[in-house]
Structures are given as structure tokens and as C-alpha cells.
Amino acid sequence: MDPAHWKVYTNELKEDLEKLEGFLRLKAEPVALWNERQARDKQAKSPKCEESGLVGLWQVMMSLGVTPRITMEDAQSMSFYRKRDDTSPLPQYLFSCSKHGMTHNDLLKAMETLSNGRVVGRFFEFYPQRRVDIRYWLAGWIKRGVVPLATLNYQKPVRGITEEEKLSFPKDWHHHMVYAVSYDGIHLANPISKMKAEHFKNRIESESVVLIPRTEVLGRLQNDLDYEQLKSVPEWRQMNVLGQIEVVEREAERFNNLRIPCGMQHIAIPSSMIGGITLFAHKDTENHRAIISSEEVFLKI
């Protein structure tokens, strides 16, 4: 074997050994910010809000021992919190769905406001796919006392999920604080749950898309709708959103009053959300410096 191939072989062997060692450590003892009892207690004390990003930020601050300087009610009225416009015509409704929720930039700005600058973070993007074992990557940060807040897309198909399980999941994009990692899964808050590592990684490795059910499209169709925005914005034109709407409309007309399942159950539109993990730590600490200086996670080639 030539020296170049030998170096590659030894590096791969070293990575495999490190993974095995990490797996054995996690099997012996999970890496955790909270134990199960603490997690359920803190979840019960978390303020109620439909925006998972705000709840996640509150839980991150709880983990870091920081008290928010404003209330949840005040936070919901600020610019980093965007709701769907349920009463608007279809084009405007779709644009509001596209921007609904809190992006990673919103999370970082909101944390600066909520913590009065005492907590800072950095976002690590996981789309396209990354070459990393997510359990050991998370465990390494949690062991230091860094708090991860993950952004997952629950609309992305995942193998091995039952229809009953799907009913308990959030509808689309959702933020979870990660409070522990064990050999058999990732432990999440809001709600308290455990997810297989491969399912978790699959959901953070999602393109920026949100699916709108056909019933929500059909219920907003009118004769005088202005679709100019859908045709003029490059991302929307590239995804042919207007064409998808026309297909749904034609199918509804063709199969109206017939018990025949239509082909398109939803349309896909661009989303402002990006799959990944935001790491938080106290400002001007060793953990803060470690987050800022850390390399991006390598792309899977």
C-alpha cells in the first residue's frame, strides 16, 4: 500500500475507534445537562407559547441559569416572531407560511434581547448532509456545558415511523433544546421526547421547504387572485409554486364528488427556515470562544 492510501486507511481506522470508544462511553453514562426528572420539571415550568423557538430560548436560559429580562407576552410582540396570516388570500397566506416561525438569525437576535447580551450563540447549518456522527458531536458540546437548540423539519420523510407516531409530531419546522445524548438517542425538550439519532440527523439535514396541505390551498382559491408575486420571486418560480396550485385546482375539478384520491396532497413552497443546530453559552467565556472558533461541520461528499 502506498503512503497516501495508508494515511487515509489509518485516519479512517482512527475515526472508527473513536466512534466505538464514544459509543461505549455513552452506553455506560449519557451526557446530559438535565436528568429525566429535571427535564420534566423544567418543561412544566416553561412558559406556554405556540412558537417553539421562544420556548426553546427560555429553556436554554433556564439551563444556563439566566433570567429573561422581558416576559413571554412581550417577546411574542417583537419583530423576531412571525405568525401565519390565516385570514389573507392564498398568495399572501403562502408567503406568510414561508416566513412563519423563527429562523436561526431570529433566535440569535432574540437571545441577545432576552438575556440582555449575557448569552450568545452560533448556528451550525446541517444542509446539505454533513459527515459527522451527531451523537458524539452533540455530546462533546453538552459535556462542556454548551446548550444546543436544534431546528428540525418534521415534514421530511423518515423511515420506520408509524402513522400513529406522526400524529404526535409537530406539523412542520420545530425547535427543540437538546438536554441529553445517550447511545440510543437524542433527548429533546418541548415536548420531552427521545429520538433516534438517525431520525434526528435526517430532520436537521433538510432543505428549506415547507409543505402546504391541498385543503388549505383549495379553501383559499378565488377567481380574482393576483399571483404576480409567485411568478416574480426567483425561488418561488424555480419551485413552480403557481404550477403546483394549478395542478391541485385541476385535480379538484376533475375528481369533485368522486371517491378517488387525488395525486397531490400538498404543494411545496420555499421556507425561511434552515435545518441545523444553534449552540449557546455565556458571553466572554471559554465555551463562547470555543463555539466561535469551531470549524463548520464537514459536508458529506
The chain-level mean pLDDT equals 88
Summing up helix and strand content along with how strands pair, one would put the structural category as alpha+beta
Largest sheet, in brief, is: 7 strands, antiparallel
Rg over CA atoms? 22 Å
Spans of 5+ residues with little confidence (pLDDT < 50)?
Answer: none
Element order, helices and strands?
Answer: HEHHHHHEHEHEEEHEHHHHEEH
Query: How many DSSP H or I helices?
Result: 14
Shape: globular
Say how many strands there are.
9
Helix content: 40-55%
Task: Write up what this structure looks like.
With 301 residues, the chain is α+β, with helices and mostly antiparallel strands. It is built from 14 helices and nine strands. The chain has helices spanning 3-28, 36-45, 52-64, 72-76, 90-99, 104-114, 134-144, 163-167, 197-204, 214-218, 228-232, 234-238, 241-254, 286-293, and strands spanning 31-32, 119-125, 147-153, 173-182, 185-188, 193-195, 209-213, 266-270, 276-282. Strand 4 (173-182) and strand 5 (185-188) form a beta hairpin. The longest helix has 26 residues, at 3-28. It is globular, with a radius of gyration of 22 Å. The model has no long low-confidence stretch (mean pLDDT 88).
Secondary structure topology:
Layout (H helix, E strand, L loop, with lengths): L2 H26 L2 E2 L3 H10 L6 H13 L7 H5 L13 H10 L4 H11 L4 E7 L8 H11 L2 E7 L9 H5 L5 E10 L2 E4 L4 E3 L1 H8 L4 E5 H5 L9 H5 L1 H5 L2 H14 L11 E5 L5 E7 L3 H8 L8
